[in-house]
What we know:
Blueprint (H helix, E strand, L loop, with lengths): L33 H8 L10 E6 L3 H10 L3 E6 L2 H6 L8 E2 L3 H18 L7 H9 L1 H9 L10 H5 L3 H16 L1
Parallel strand pairs: 1-2, 2-3
Helix pairs in contact: 4-6, 4-8, 5-6, 6-8
Amino acid sequence: xxxAEGKPVAEGRNEAYEDGPGTGPLRxxxxxxxxxxxxxxxxxxxxxxxxxxxxxQEPCSMCAAAxxxxxVGRVRYVAPDPWALSSGxxxxxxxxxxxxxxxxxxxxxxxxxxxxxxxxGPAEPRILTHHRTAEPETTAFHDTLPRGLPTxxxxxxxxxxxxARLAELSAARELRTRR
Length: 179
C-alpha cells in the first residue's frame, strides 16, 4: 500500500497456503491474502482515503470489500483475478488494472505455480486444468517455468530467460482476446 505521494507504507503477501509460525495471525488461513495482510499492517489512525492498495492480481470480493470497508482511496492491480478468469465471470472488483498483457501472464502464472506447489498429491489442481482451456497462454508460460517457486534474486533475473517466450505468448493472448 502506498501513501498519497506513492511511498510504501504497508505491505503483505499471500500466506494462505503457509503453515507454521509466521508474520501474522492470518497465516495458513483462507483469509491470508496479500491485500488482507497489507490492510492488517495499516494502523487505525492512518488516512487510508489517500492511499493506494496495489495488488499483483485483481482483489477477490473479500479483499475488495475489506479495502472499501477500511476506506482505501484507490485499488490498482496488474492482472485479473485468476479464479474469475477460470470461471469466465471476468472479475467484478472496482479496482483499476495497471498492467500490460505480459504482466498479466506473469502474475497469473506465479499464482498458479503457488497453487501447484501447495497442492498435495500428483493430481493437477483444478484451476490449472481449467486454465488450460480458459487461459492457454498463461498455462503455456506456467509450463515453461522451472518446478517449484522462483528462487532468483529479483523478478528480472527470474524472467530474463523466459522473456522471449513471454512476449510471444502475450501477443497470442492479445490476438485471442480481441475477437
